[in-house]
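Example 5.3 — Yip1 domain-containing protein
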Amino acid sequence: MLLQHAFGLFTHPADEWVSIRKEHETPVRLYVAYVLILAAIGPICAYISTAHFGWTVGSERLIKLTEISALQLSVLTYLAMLVGVFALGYAINWMARTYGANEEHVPSNGVALAAYSCTPLFLAGFALLYPVPWFNAAVFLAAACYGAWLMYDGLPIVMGIEKEQAVLYGGALLTVALVILVATRVGSVILWNYGIGPVFVG
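Solution (predicted structure tokens):
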């Protein structure tokens, strides 16, 4: 089962990457059995915490979102995560030939590398049940760092390249990931201007 890899990537990542390369799952199966499930953790936890628990900044009053607003934002976040993982996977495959790897007609290895590298970020979504901004920021920063390391560690194994090439390849992919992140932030601002922004409980 693909979800077993989530545990293995924290305990013995090198062996897990070898197993992932051998499986060579199609992007569709990988999405259905892994990404759709784990990517839902953050949005579900965010919905529960923002609509029902609320949060405070300093000594200010408790802040909450309306249930409809929290649901809208959670669904949009979920969709953005799915698109982001898929886009990163295609970027990995698209840049493969540049860094000495084989570009695939169906980008199975690229999407797998993107999806499994995002595992720490998916699991960090549990931290949103405790809606304290500094705590959430610290958890997601640590998860992003470990995810970047997983990608660097997995690139030579999954894409079949030299370790030295993985440094340049990984740097290029992190740049792509940041562009995707900025694009989602810009998309959020555009949607907020169309009225799909946060609505706070009065």
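Remark. The longest helix spans residues 163-193.
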